Amino acid sequence: MPEAPKNTLKPTTDYNLELKNKKTLQFIEDVTSNADEVQKKVLEEILSRNAHVEYLQTRGLNGHTDRETFKKTMPVITYEDIQPHIDRIANGDTSPILSSNPISEFLTSSGTSGGERKLMPTIEEELGRRSLLYSLLMPVMSQFVPGLDKGKGMYFLFIKSEAKTPGGLVARPVLTSYYKSTHFKDRPYDPYTNYTSPNETILCPDSYQSMYSQMLCGLCQHKEVLRVGAVFASGFIRAIKFLEKHWRLLCNDIRTGTIDSQITDQSVREAVMKILKPDPKLADFIEAECSKDSWQGIITRLWPNTKYVDVIVTGTMSQYIPTLDYYSNGLPLVCTMYASSECYFGVNLNPLCKPSEVSYTLVPTMAYFEFLPVQRNNGVTSSISVPKTLNEKEQQELIDLVDVKLGQEYELVVTTYSGLYRYRVGDVLRVAGFKNNAPQFNFICRKNVVLCIDSDKTDEVELQNAVKNAVNHLLPFGATLAEYTSYADTTTIPGHYVLYWELSLNRNTPIPPSVFEDCCLTIEESLNSVYRQGRVCDKSIGPLEIKVVEPGTFDKLMDYAISLGASINQYKTPRCVKFAPIVELLNSRAVSSYFSPKSPKWFPGHKQWSNNN
Ligand code: AMP
């Protein structure tokens, strides 16, 4: 299998950037040219080293490592299928259940099961694989934008809280795990990982202090910044909004060369003080720009050498493209990679392409990939769907990486080094082209997700349950919910969920606003842990809103859908709307609007773990 280029060089003396980039690009050529052989070897390696783990033994794989036997023997699964095994590991069973390597920690996915984050087992060496994927990004990028080694990246990166499972394993999001690892903290010299944010500011657990200090450092080094970004578009916009709110304080710090007293974390203060110098001229400049009426192009105004904005704007994040275009004056929006807690998948080899054309090349060394063909029904008549269990024939017919067909859509299924076997990730991808023999995929959607503002993913079943709980508040008033739908409103920053409710009123008892506010809060309390964390901790989601619409609104909605070609027999009210004219129709018929009066409850860790608060 082609070896990944190693990054062990020291600054300046023996650092040959050109050579390193060349080696990295050659690695991509090699693995994509030999994609099928690499995949075969990856599967052999995973299965041979794990031949004796309980999960493979009990299913009768008997040490086979070939694709055919694997496909015949092993079921295609979802999280719920392995949850009992995960729970045993979480409760302290250290026997080789899923992996022969010790499970080093759990990565908490933003995908949820039973309202709680899914727990993905991982092993120590997986960090190396993640680092490898990161190391591919800048050599690819520098083919299109030269000179990026001459300045810095202003990236807003954050850690989230972590919990311990009852058995004592750490459970935290994958990026928190990565930023806290030596792979990130003690990264060897590389001009491409030269960030304006000192590690201490990224690793600060207090999100306000972390954001404040990263913004301060980014402003101080504004001329050196060549690229800006965050992981997701929503996170970057949150940073701009933060600047809008706090620029006076930040300017004061820059003017005086001191840090605001709200920044109490000593290590953050020390790290920032190495960068911050009194600079009244810079403070005047920032003040002048920030106090202008329009914030259009604020990124290029404050960071004039920025060449692109590095954020994920594919999938649900595409809703943020207009806002990013506004703040950045149309700088290229670059989506570099596609990854998850289960496994890091691939990179965008044509990073300056339009957001709508982004495709990710799956890197064949990362995991063994299979593809389940998907037939999508059209969005207007979407209905509650749960992953369908596959019969034996369907399980055997999953398609290998090099055999996918151009234009076809597939659900991604992975077998990873850390103990997932034929696991359905839940993402739908479409083949957009090939790099040598490796397919390149457009990210289409995550299955079943109807609402998403940040990293939250709310599906129809969760929404339905939450609404069911909330409408109990209406019963004493003789009111029932005739119809509802929802909308992820990102015109506010942070964005928020809006529910459109049409009521049937059976009595003339007026319903006080506080009742609807209770409904809002009950819905929030009923939504999954990732949503509630976004509301409480990260403040990345705003209070949920209920808009009561005039009687007859949903009939109008149906008329409209039918006028667009929906079948009258099959029409079902969409539980989420995105199409602007439909949102306009609903808004134009709203008679009142109510917001959640406070944040819902949230605790780190799973609710069933006793040590979670
Ligand atoms: P998590 O497990 O919380 O890290 O979330 C991983 C999920 O985020 C993936 O399975 C995708 O649904 C989504 N995701 C990750 N990278 C991208 C991307 N580049 N474009 C669109 N969605 C992405």
TrEMBL record:
One Pfam match: GH3
Keywords carried by this UniProt record: Ligase
Organism classification: Eukaryota, Viridiplantae, Streptophyta, Embryophyta, Tracheophyta
Statement: the UniProt record of this protein carries the keyword Ligase: yes
Molecular-function GO terms, alphabetical: indole-3-acetic acid amido synthetase activity
Domain GH3 C-terminal: 462-579
Name of the molecule in the record: Indole-3-acetic acid-amido synthetase GH3.6
Similarity section: Belongs to the IAA-amido conjugating enzyme family.
GO cellular component: cytoplasm
Domain GH3 middle: 360-446
Biological source species: Gossypium australe
Signal peptide positions (record): none
